[in-house]
Structure formats: structure tokens, C-alpha cells
Amino acid sequence: MTDALCHIVVDGNEVLELKLVRSPKDIESDETSFSSEMCHQVFGDNENIFGYTDLHIKLYYTAGSLQTYLGIEYTDKIEPSTYEGMKADDVEGALKKVLAPGYVTNLDNFVSLLAKDESFLPYGQLIHKFSLLPRHGGDKRQFEVYYSETSTPNFLSFHQRLQTFLLWYVDAASFIDVDDDQWTFFTVYEKYGVSEGGWRYATVAYATVYRYYAYPRHTRPRIAQVLTLPPFRKLGICAQLLQAIYSHYIPLPEVLDITVEDPSGEFQRIRDYVDAKNCETLPAFQPAKLLQGYSSEMANQACNKFKINKKQARRIYEILRLKNTNTSDKTAYLNYRLDVKNRLNAPFQKKKLEMQKLQKFLKPEEYAATINATGLSNTHSRLASEYIPLEQDYRRVIHRMEY
Q: Is residue 370's pLDDT more than 90?
């Protein structure tokens, strides 16, 4: 692209402004605005928008029901007749493909929707309440978690608006098939008072959970999508949401265990924190037993009490053992590191035994090349590269537990 055209190419994240609007004054306030973290799923891999001068995209949602306003402003737009046939990107067309039907493009219409939002009530069944202190002081904030299914009245149209946030904050996000009634939903709302009296609700976070079948008459719920909206992050809401999901499914006798689909690093740390806090209360995870090594008793108690699967139970053991290990004691700390590294190395040991069986059928150079390709020849450096970031993650979880 020539330098002459560079001024009409902008980063979509820089020109997109999002808001969760509670009252008309929020529309004009910069404090209520927040940005997207990505936009390639809407505007293309390079995240650029071409063809406009002073482009500004406003994507505003009423705080409760998430009724949507789309405003697209610019001072100039290129015309094919003056730019060698090149057309400006169709911004509204790209957004229309992902926004729920019914969005408005007139700000006065949006304000009228805002008035209706005053009577908004959460969808589904209330399953959990909690309160949190604001980061900068002030009164406690009240939150509620509601459980919904695809059959919950009016929920799916609300969810259609809510899921659009995934595109700005979750890489490779996809909208779920709501025709499948095995999907369940957990939504967090803030319950807040207003000056004229009464209560209102604002949408805060949500998670989707799919109930997988497990032979013969069981289910294995899998947490698929979890998103806390940007204005509500760093408050501890996601941990409360996860605990609410657990509290819903743990008592159900048909549930074998609760799993997570491809968790991000951040969500895995939250999961570790919640699971570690829970497992700390179990007899098998008390300090004296942790220092004796991982046991089937730990796996059984974690599953029976909290529906934690074996892989996650082992991880929680490692976190709690580190928490209870005196790392100033060189022997105790060495024993801990060796225990974790043996677990990390187990799949490679199995692979090495398989390769030894194969060795007699390969030429020496073929065997050496295969060993190098699988990483089996460099065990020490490989284990170090796996172990160091793992312990760093564990320490972050422990720090939060002690905070």
C-alpha cells in the first residue's frame, strides 16, 4: 500500500469504543468506555480497517439486557472513482454478521431502550449470591449468579447479544449451537441500588457448560466458555462464578466429574485457586500427607467431594505440596522438584521404552534421528523448560491463596 493511503488505514482496536450503559450520562462519560483486545474475527487477520478518515465505531450496550447501539462516525470516506477503484471496507456489514438482530443505529432510540432497561430482571434461577469490596474502597458490591438452559424463557435472545463480547476478548471464539439442549449457562449480574430507590441489574460475566454423556447413565459437564466483561475484571468474580458452577453440579449424583475445554493460562490459574482452596479442607490434602507424595486417596477424595478429575487432582496436590514445603530446606525443596519432574517426564519415559523396542528394526542413524526429533535426547533442558514456568504459575496461585 502506498504511503499516500496509509492515513486511511486504522487499527480496528484503536477506533472501536465499547460501553455498558446504566444511565444517559454514561453515554458522554469517557470513564465508562473500554477497548477490545482483538478484532481479527470481525475485521480480518491484520485487524485493519481501510478507507476512512477519523473513523470512530461506537458499540454501546444497555448494562442489563444488552440492547445494542452501533454508531459509525468519520469525516471522510474514499470513493472508487478517486482511488483507482478501491472501496472502503464495509464496517457495518462486517459488524452486522456478528451482532444480534435488533441493534439500533439511532442514539435517541438507544436512550429509549435504556429507559426500558430499568425494569430488567435476570433470566433463569438464582443459585449463588456474593459481595465484593471495590478495589479503591467504598461500599460492598452485590452480585448474583443465575442458571439458565436453552429452554429458559427469553434467555437465548439475551445470550445472542451477550456472546458477541467473545469476539473482542477470546481468540478463536465461536458461537455455540443453541439448538442443542445440553448447553447450560451461568450468568453473573451486579445488583445495585439507584438514587431514586430500588434495585437494578447489570450483566457482569457468564460461562457456558456442556453436559456430555458418560456411560452408562452419567454426565460429565465441561466448561466451554468463560468471560468476565472488562469493567468487572480483577475483582474475583470469575472465581465466584466457577464456584457457583461447582456448587450446582457437585450435588448431582449423575455427574462423574467437571472438566474444562482448552483453558487459557489465566483461567487455569483461577481454576487452580478455587480447587486448591476446596481441597485444602480434605483430610488427604493435609500437610503431613502432602509431604508423603501423591496418592490415590487424594484423587478419590477430590473426585468424591468436589468432582475434580484425576489430572487436575494431581496438579492441586503439587500446588498444595509446594505451599507446605519449606523451600529454604534444600532437601525438601529438591524432593518436591524431583516429584514434579518425574510426573512431567513420565510420558517421555514411556516413549523411550517404545523406542528401545523399535531400535532393533532401525539403522543407528535412523534411531538417532528419531530420538532427536522426539526430544528424548535432551531430557534435562526439556524438563527445566517445562518445570520453571509451572512453578511460577503455582506460586501465583499460592500467593492469591495467602492474600
A: no
Q: By CB neighbour count within 10 A (0-12 exposed, 13-18 middle, 19+ buried), where does 48 fall?
A: middle
Whether 34 shows a pLDDT value over 80: the answer reads: yes
List the one residue out of 224, 230, 172, 176 whose CA is nearest residue 40: 172
Sign of CA dihedral 118, 119, 124, 129: positive
Within a 10 A sphere around the Cβ of 201, how many other Cβ atoms? Answer: 20
pLDDT at 13: 98
What cell numbers appear for 298 in the block?
A: 487424594
Residue 314 lies in a domain: no
Instruction: Dihedral sign for Cα 281, 282, 283, 284, please.
Output: negative
Which CATH number does the domain housing residue 231 bear? 3.40.630.30
Domain count across the chain: 3
Catalytic residue among 37, 261, 354, 386: 261
Reported confidence tier of residue 374, pLDDT bands at 50, 70, 90 = low
The partner residues of 200 in beta bridges, in order of sequence, read: 192
The reported pTM is 0.90
Compute the average pLDDT of residues 193-211: 94
Average pLDDT over residues 268-275: 98
Q: Which residues pair with 50 in a beta bridge?
A: 9
- What mean pLDDT comes out for the span 20-39? 97
Residues 93 and 114: their CA atoms lie apart, in Å, by 25
Q: What is the domain range of residue 223?
A: 121-262
Distances (CA, A) of 311 to 257, 338, 359: 11, 18, 32
Alpha helical stretches, state H, 121-257: 155-162, 166-169, 237-249
HSE-CB for 325 with a 13 A CA cutoff: 25
Vertex 22: Cα angle to 27 and 170 (nearest 5): 85
Separation of alpha carbons 201 and 362, rounded Å: 68
Shared domain check, 136 and 102: no
The residue with cell 524432593 is: 335
How many Å apart are CA 34 and CA 36, to the nearest integer? 7
Residue after which a domain boundary falls, among 95, 117, 139: 117
37 is catalytic: no
